[in-house]
């Protein structure tokens, strides 16, 4: 099979779909790999690294799409790429369809095989291809939140860890999944007082067992959220519904209950956000302010640390890429139920229930 690695063209996206090590494994399995010139530079991988691994370097993104049976990316295709995708071509990437009707309709029109990293699901319900980026984003959420709590960027002027004689900052984490736990871990490491809310008592018991005593757990409901937002300095949105739009746990009217300069980092922005006032931002222009509350809603947070993110992503995607290349998508998905759950749009039809429900359509099979 021919596998193409295009350069990401989303705003400030420096990750790349595969490391030279991944290319080496594909070539070793007798596949042809095309890499767009400069695709890996933002992550610290250069054309000669890919050539030494056995890839062929192509000059343009159009050539990569035109010559490849399968495209391996990081982020969803943007409008400039829609017409490059071919009928029957496999596109393996993060799609987050539920947050974009335009993307969904474009991929339906393309008649491509759209396999989403974020819905590949193991038997235990875990999401192996989403986990590493959730780990990165959860940890970054605290770094970014701490920065935007500074007064020069209109934050509250709070140092999360405090100093002797001054209480530490307070962090509220919505969701005890991978993002939430990693965020809580980082915030706790800085010395902040952390509260983590979830509806899953098993997850809360797990958090209670592994976290230090200054991380406390609570059940997530509107009453408790309204109570906690009044006293916390930094709020992390880490809620995920597999393949579906995130619920709005914080509504517009709740902003008036927050102290001016409170910071919200909505990591769920890829799935529409768990804050009603969330709208996607970029690393170039990461924040906006509503009712004196700072919103950080960058839709590709791990793109700011591309080396770490690219290596972590290739570690988990490569086995699936090899299956798809060795067997073809039909056989690979038939033999691997985890990979089959990654099928979102196939040959012009939505095949993932939650995405179909988001747009009030019927899935072809669920």
TrEMBL record:
Leading EC class: oxidoreductase
E.C. designation(s): 1.4.1.1
Family matches, as SUPFAM superfamilies: Formate/glycerate dehydrogenase catalytic domain-like, NAD(P)-binding Rossmann-fold domains
Domain Alanine dehydrogenase/pyridine nucleotide transhydrogenase NAD(H)-binding: 149-297
MF GO annotations: alanine dehydrogenase activity; nucleotide binding
GO biological processes: L-alanine catabolic process
Binding site residues for substrate: 15, 75
Catalytic reaction equation(s): L-alanine + NAD(+) + H2O = pyruvate + NH4(+) + NADH + H(+)
One Pfam family here: AlaDh_PNT_C
Swiss-Prot/TrEMBL keywords: NAD, Nucleotide-binding, Oxidoreductase
InterPro entries on file: Ala_DH (IPR008141), Ala_DH/PNT_CS2 (IPR008143), AlaDH/PNT_N (IPR007886), AlaDH/PNT_NAD(H)-bd (IPR007698), NAD(P)-bd_dom_sf (IPR036291)
Homology family: Belongs to the AlaDH/PNT family.
PANTHER family, sorted: ALANINE DEHYDROGENASE (PTHR42795)
Name used for this protein in its record: Alanine dehydrogenase
